[in-house]
C-alpha cells in the first residue's frame, strides 16, 4: 500500500471520526487528534484491516509552556504488513490526563512511565504508573521547562556508608581579581 492510498483511507477515517489535522512529511503520515479520542484512534489503527499498525515504536513528549495545551504527545506506529509508519499527535495540559494505551500496546507501559516521570503527564488506567528515571523523593519533573536549573540538595553515592546520601549544595566562588593583560 503506498502513502497516497493511505492518505485516501485516512481521509475516509476523518469522515467517521473527527481528526484535527492530516499532514504528510516525506513518507510519514501525521494525524493530529483530540486527547479524548486518542485511545479510540489507536485501537482503530491497530485492528482495522487496511491499517494494521501492530507495533508502537515510540511515544515522545514536548513541553510548550506558553501554550494552553502545553504538552504534545506523539505516538509512532508501524505497520509491518503494509510497511508504513504513522505518527499520531495529541495535545494536553498538566491538569487533564491521557487514557493509557498499555493494554493495547505492551511497549506503551515503559514509555508512559517515562513521560509521567519526566513531564508529569498523568496516564489514566495505567497498570503500573511509577517513576523510573528519578528518585522516589524527587520533587518536580525534569523535562518541564519550568523546572529550576539548580537545587539545594545533591544526591551522591557515599563509598564509606555504602548508600546514596543527600547533601546540601554549597555554591561558593572565591574572589579573584582579573588582570586582563596577563595570559594567566
Describe the protein in words:
- This protein has helices at residues 3-16, 38-47, 108-119, and strands spanning 21-25, 28-32, 55-63, 71-79, 84-92, 98-99, 123-124, 153-158, 163-168.
- The chain has 184 residues and is an alpha/beta fold.
- The protein has a single domain (3-135), classed as Beta Polymerase, domain 2, CATH 3.30.460.80.
- It has a 5-stranded mixed sheet.
- α3 links the parallel β6 (98-99) and β7 (123-124).
- The radius of gyration is 23 Å and the shape is elongated.
| CATH superfamily placement | NADH:ubiquinone oxidoreductase Nqo5 subunit
Over the alpha carbons, how many angstroms does the gyration radius reach? Answer: 23 Å
Structural domain tally? 1
The gross shape turns out to be elongated
Q: Biggest β-sheet: count, sense, barrel? A: 5 strands, mixed
- Helical fraction equals 10-25%
Quickly give the structural class.
alpha/beta
The CATH level-2 architecture is identified as 2-Layer Sandwich
Give the neighbour order of strands across the main sheet.
Answer: 1-2-5-4-3
Uncertain segments of ≥5 residues (pLDDT<50)? none
The overall average pLDDT, rounded, is 84
